[in-house]
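We close this part of the discussion by returning to an individual protein. In the encoding step, the backbone of a single protein was reduced to a row of integers, each denoting a local shape. The sequence in question and its structure tokens are set out directly beneath this paragraph.
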Amino acid sequence: MKALAIALNTFREARRDRAQWILLLYAVVVLGGAAVLTPLAMGEGYRVTRDLGLAALSLIGLIMIVLVGSGLVHKELDRRTVLTVLAKPVRRTEFLIGKYLGLMAMVTLIFAGMVLLLAGTLLIMERRLEPAVLCAAGFTYAELGVMTAVVVAFSSFVSPALAGIFTLAMAVMGHFSGDLLRFADTAGNPVLAWLSRGVYLVLPHLESFNWRAEAAYGVLPDPSQAGGAALYALLYTASLLALGSGIFTQREFR
């Protein structure tokens, strides 16, 4: 219950930061992109809009997470409200989990709005909405859940600027983490191979949530793929929050 109270307060703060305006940016990207690119797509306008809309879900969602989440804990430290909250019988782990849940509530609200905008655009254009598009959106939501945990974990012990930079770096490297494993398999140096595999294990495997290319052609994922991605997202998120809580617990506030 304590974590939920903190989550509710965090959600309200995110709304005061006007995070919902990110929907306008998404609408401009999808509607504008569809209007410009569809005439050039030579009969492939529906596929182009799916590609653009799904890619924008991931990119704009990540931008929102970084902008809102990087300063979550720092704001509490600046205003000294964290001292008031932690003076009550609230553990620091509960505080950080509450921050994550509150930010995820805002992410869920904005994400649902973006998916509705995309679905409406596709229905207007082609009078159809293929299930593969919604499946790809679900994968993207799992990816954003992982990245929300990343930014909350970083915000617990670094400045907002560094939390944002580190989160963006993790997002980029997470999409190319598979290259590290391939490099480890071909590296002649055993030390480099060991380091590459170690970094690979630490980085989020974000390509596990990338179903956009398949969705553009209406391909549905196997239930095992969807279940595996969901389980990985839960385990990685839990690990990050546990790590962030451990570091946050050791911090001294002045």
